[in-house]
Amino acid sequence: MNRILTMTMIAILAGCTQTADHNGQAGQASESLNAVKERFARMEADALKEPYHGIFTTNDTLENLYSIKATNVTTAPIIEAANNFLAALSTDQRQRTTFEITDQEWRKWSNVDNGIYDRQGVSLKEMDEEQKKLAFDLMRSSLSAKGLQLSKDIMKTDQTLRELNDNSADYDEELYFFTLMGTPSDTAPWGWQIDGHHLVINYFVLGDQVVMSPVFMGGEPIFTTSGKYKGNTLFQDEQNMGLAFMQSLSDTQQVDATITRVKTGNNNVSEANKDNLTLDFQGIQASSLSASQRAELLELINQYISNMREGHKQVKMEEVIRHIDNTWFSWVGETKPDAVFYYRIHSPVVLIEFDHQRVVGVPNTDDGKPSRNHIHTVVRTPNGNDYGKDLLRQHLANHQH
């Protein structure tokens, strides 16, 4: 289903929860909710019928992009944090949280709110204080300080949406669900996932290698002006750095980068249920940029990759740099200081999307146009290595489990 239809359905749902104040309206709201949930369930079921392939360009012939090798960046703190977290769970919680390394749970994630999508695992809301601390310790050991803070700030936006939507249980700063695939190990593949509204992180570990993708990070409202987390603000660097890079291009380069100047809807293409996607390079190729422009583009990419812990961030950025000549930047929208826009950075080893989206969760503000108060970002690993799938394939080919 295309993104416009998806967001229209969500907008209908949000409207129902705000206006169902007598029996007839409540019944209509319930019917709308069930219809939307069923639609999302079918979307996921249809996607999972296809074995994982990955995101490729039409004529992609690249081989051996990813290999099992030593990075000399320890994963011991991540393993320890995962084991501590698992040990603190009850038997029932552990059963609901743990899956085989090859389980489809990796691909069962969605950025939408909990009224629409039912998640697996154990949520922060179900945990006692010690379990919550250990869950955040797992995130802290895996992410940079910046990445952890951004994750927490995204969670805060759900508390704000709860306040703005008459205390709706669909929104909650603790409705973020943890699952682990495989057994934490310094030799065998394993990983973890957090899944919730506007925050999804898939984190694969094999030896001292890490693949952190797909990652979905978003937020609404971007600017919190009331309530418990008044002043909370998200994605200003990603927004402003992207616009500044586009504005730094010459007029001719901007024309090359632009897909269209018209931004009327939502443009992200690699969100949930889009694991198998044919996506060709568009825009301007980095090989045609000046040295300073390439450096600025790398800084923009680093803004997203630096949500990983420092050592593995550096490993990933070295991979990105090796393919910088075949990295493409594309743009949708205008370039005025207050413009709403979409941009994509796409290379053989990284896909990044930034999108100003229509307002959905903040009541009485949806005018049908994209807004700076609702942002979605996605980071993917093209050519078959989301979820560490290519590394896992190579490992399983040489090891019996």
Task: Characterize the structure shown.
- By secondary structure, the protein is an alpha+beta fold.
- The protein contains eleven helices and 14 strands.
- The strands form two sheets. Strands 2, 3, 4, 5, 6, 7, 8, 10, 11, 12, 13 and 14 form a twelve-stranded mixed beta sheet that branches. Strands 1-9 form a two-stranded parallel sheet.
Radius of gyration: 21 Å
Structural class: alpha+beta
Distance between the termini: 37 Å
- How many H/I helical runs? 11
Largest sheet: 12 strands, mixed
CA-based shape: globular
Quaternary status: single chain
- Overall strand count: 14
Summarize the structure.
Helices cover 39% and strands 19% of the residues. It is an alpha+beta fold. It is globular.
Secondary structure elements and their pairing?
Layout: H1 3-19, H2 23-49, E1 55-56, H3 76-88, H4 91-97, E2 98-99, E3 122-123, H5 129-142, H6 145-164, E4 177-181, E5 190-196, E6 199-206, E7 209-219, H7 236-248, H8 251-257, E8 258-260, E9 277-278, E10 284-285, H9 291-305, H10 310-322, E11 328-333, E12 341-346, E13 351-358, E14 370-380, H11 389-398
Parallel strand pairs: 1-9, 2-4, 8-11
Antiparallel strand pairs: 3-4, 4-5, 5-6, 6-7, 7-14, 10-11, 11-12, 12-13, 13-14
Helix pairs in contact: 1-2, 3-5, 7-9, 9-10
